[in-house]
Amino acid sequence: MVSEEKLIERVRRQFPSSRVGEAGSFRAARRSRDNEFGPRAGIGDDAAVLRPSRGSEWVVTTDAFLENVHFLRKVHPPKAVGYKALARATSDLAAMGARPRYFFLTLALPDACAGAWLDDFLRGMARASRRFGLILAGGDTTKYPVVVTSLTVLGEVEKGKAILRSGAKPGDLLCVSGTLGESELGLRLVQSKLYKQKRWAGLLKKHLYPEPRLAVGEWLAARQYATSMIDTSDGLSTDLGHLCNASGVGVIVWEQKIPTVKIPPELQRPGAGCTWSPPNKGLDPLELALNGGEDYELCFTVPKKLAARLPRELGGIPITAIGEITRGKRAFSIDANGKSKLLLPGGWDPFRRR
Known about the structure:
The protein is α+β, with helices and mostly antiparallel strands. Helix 4 (116-132) links the parallel strand 2 (99-109) and strand 3 (135-143). Helices cover 29% and strands 23% of the residues. The protein is built from eleven helices and twelve strands. The chain folds into two domains: 4-158, CATH 3.30.1330.10; 165-342, PurM-like C-terminal domain (Phosphoribosyl-aminoimidazole Synthetase, Chain A, domain 2, Alpha-Beta Complex), CATH 3.90.650.
């Protein structure tokens, strides 16, 4: 028998409230400040009591991670489920240029997951919390037929420096971090049951253990280089639509400039046990980059006058200009032959009929 009190104690052991993690290249600069940072009350009380830093604003986000919607219990390792649940929520802070501080976990699970599965889930989430610099400040637990998690994550940003979706201006360059389509490639391997083959294990990393680009977001916010920003959680084509709608602008995307995932030749050909969609066709790196979700890279706009100061990489993460913001209200892409076409949102939408 598992009581809620004992379950909460297992959570508490994985997430001591005094523990502060590390987040990329900013960890050394933050260590002296973080030694004095922590909740006055957290796990075990009815509510948390938090202390914001002077001269900062809270950035708060919430995210759900559901069995049979976002992960499959029989396929995805519980450590990866715990890690990814927190990573995807934390990515929203990166997209605002915020520094992660606290998170709250609501967890519902069946009896079958209250033992070893839960312990591995918590280990994965604890690993993510240390990596991203987050403290678990509270939450809730209950019983349910399938695993349901809801995470609320709080970050801080200097007053007035949070990067919104709504600041893009005509003439701004459109940039992205990292490589696009990697997580979608991992998902396709899972869907085709090729994930069981050890030779493709490296292609699953971004799908199972995504990395929110916290250092990139903080760098852009601190220097106020980016006029707008969003993370590529739903796919570039869809997230670009969100950014353009919020800013009241359009965009032209240069397809040749998009940093697409490199697909092994064996996976680019149909057959050989691959069950891609559409059937009888290989994988298209551009399609994965445009419409594949869960890369959690940053997509942001920069004024042309500042573009020359933008490094080609930040903390080892490549930065690539892939387009330009326009006065129109629509998104277009231009292929290698200079042909323009309407760029429609083809990424993740939970309410779209499929």
